[in-house]
Write a structure and sequence with these properties.
Blueprint (H helix, E strand, L loop, with lengths): L2 H8 L6 H6 L4 E5 L11 E5 L2 E7 L5 E5 L13 E2 L4 E2 L5 E3 L5 E4 L8 H4 L7 E4 L2 E4 L23 E8 L3 H8 L2 H4 L17 E2 L4 E2 L8 E7 L2 E8 L8 E10 L3 E4 L6 E10 L2 E9 L9 H8 L26 H5 L9 H11 L16 H18 L21 E5 L11 H18 L4
Helix pairs in contact: 1-9
The structure holds FE2/S2 (inorganic) cluster and fe (ii) ion.
FE2/S2 (inorganic) cluster (FES) binds next to loops.
């Protein structure tokens, strides 16, 4: 990639096209648990380089306002959250969740100033464990497209959150990079002959393959793309392939292959050009399956207060301390010496620099999905810069809840794509190809 293309792909602040593209989608601001309590502590949230304050009022309504008070720009994060509003500490102006100024203690009785003023309030939706905000045109708010984990059974969404000190795109490239799992995570995802698909234990995900160089096949779709990583299985390699498919749902969601206990989705949300929130969601539509929130965070090495700091979600094992890499453990057989799958990833992503220089890397055949992501997204950013609609927002937008990934054995000669498409997606494809055929048929 040229440096210009790299900037188009990565940068989200100000009027950068990729930020404009993301503003045409609902964006997760935080987990619901971070603002669970009415009149609780307000939360500073930074997204696409903009700061806001998220709070839950006395009636349980969530608001997301510009962080700075419109009076003289003090932070509302320190404000008093009480009696259905957030009151600035400096001179006592008070705001409701819609940004209305409901009190101006510093102005004399009879002043009408407050009725003329409003602070910026972002539209908010609570769904599937997250508070989502709309940062785009307030007169053109898109319908909310609930994520694929919105189909989870009650209490079956577990979320891990970690701060990454680098650009969002290099983290997303990790989410759609099947081949790295066979090296970087090989100690957590060991090969086993007695499983036929990914199988979760308390400490590892077993796999029926030891193949480190998967064949990658990509299929572009209106929402982004899906790809299959096709590996030689340990058993019956002449008759079947071990296939794992991953979906990239533009602009920042990845659906990675499930195991026998839970499905896995990821959100890579740009804080600004050089920081990202990495959310990993383990969920189940089956009330008998899934993993508890505590067990999930423990498995990932992302327990709040132990592995990551409260509020900021910054890592205890980080770039500055070498991720506390344990060389003795490596000699004893652990592949990385770094604890936890996400922290192993973070060591790779953050070591690339704040914004990876893609003009200097050398892609191989196992990087087909990475190549597709880069070209698809910088072109999508170029399209937005020309005033065209953002990827994933125009035409027949499929509900994300209908998108699935697949992993398992596929007999040789069978098309993996058949295993990976829901009935709803198939119906949409059929109607799209029918209208294409109709359009190309010659007129009488
Ligand atoms: S700065 Fe907030 S009330 Fe004055
Ligand atoms: Fe990884």
């Amino acid at each position: 990639m040229t440096p210009e293309q790299n900037d188009l792909l990565c940068r989200v602040e100000g009027d950068a096209p990729m930020g404009t593209l993301m503003r045409q989608h609902w964006i997760p601001a935080c987990m619901i648990e971070e603002v669970a309590e009415p009149d609780g502590t307000p939360l500073r949230v930074r997204l696409l380089g903009e700061n806001m304050v998220v709070f839950r009022d006395s009636e349980g309504k969530v608001g997301a306002l510009d962080e700075l008070c419109p009076h003289r720009r003090a932070s509302l994060v320190f404000g008093r959250n009480e009696e259905c509003g957030l009151r600035c500490l400096y001179h006592g102006w008070k705001f409701d969740v819609n940004g209305n100024v409901v009190d101006m203690s510093s102005e004399p009785d009879g002043s009408h100033m407050h009725s003329k003023m409003k602070t910026r309030a972002f539209p908010v939706i609570e769904n599937s464990g997250f508070v989502w905000v709309w940062m785009g045109d307030p007169d053109n708010v898109a319908e909310f497209n609930a994520p694929n984990w919105s189909t989870a059974a009650e209490g079956k969404i577990s979320i891990m959150k970690i701060h990454g000190a680098c650009n969002w795109a290099q983290i997303l490239e990790g989410a759609i990079d099947s081949s790295h799992s066979s090296s970087l995570h090989s100690s957590n995802m060991p090969a086993a002959t007695d499983v036929s698909g990914s199988t979760a234990t308390e400490t590892a995900w077993l796999r029926p393959s030891a193949d480190k160089s998967p064949r990658i096949e990509v299929e572009k779709t209106p929402f982004g793309f899906r790809y299959a990583a096709i590996r030689k299985p340990l058993v019956d390699a002449d008759k079947q392939d071990y296939v794992r498919t991953t979906l990239f749902i533009a602009p920042f969601t990845a659906v990675i292959p499930s195991n026998d206990q839970y499905h896995l989705s990821q959100l890579l949300i740009p804080v600004d050009d050089e920081n990202t929130y990495f959310y990993w969601i383990a969920w189940s539509e089956d009330p008998e399956k899934g993993i508890t929130q505590d067990a999930w965070r423990k498995f990932c090495g992302a327990e709040v207060g132990k592995d990551v700091e409260p509020v900021t979600y910054k890592k205890v094992r980080n770039y500055e301390n070498g991720y506390l890499q344990d060389r003795a453990a490596m000699k004893a057989g652990d592949f990385t010496g770094i604890y936890g799958i996400p922290c192993q990833d973070m060591a790779m992503w953050e070591s690339m620099g704040k914004i990876a220089d893609r003009s200097e890397d050398n892609l191989g055949t196992s990087d087909k999905a990475i190549f597709t992501f880069r070209t698809q997204m910088y072109r999508a950013a170029q399209a937005v810069a020309k005033g065209e609609p953002a990827i994933g927002t125009a035409g027949d937008v499929l509900p994300q809840s209908k998108l699935i990934s697949f992993q398992g054995m596929v007999p040789k000669g069978e098309d993996w794509k058949e295993r990976n498409i829901s009935a709803e997606e198939q119906a949409l494809r059929d109607s799209a190809s029918a209208s294409k055929t109709a359009a190309t048929e010659p007129a009488e």
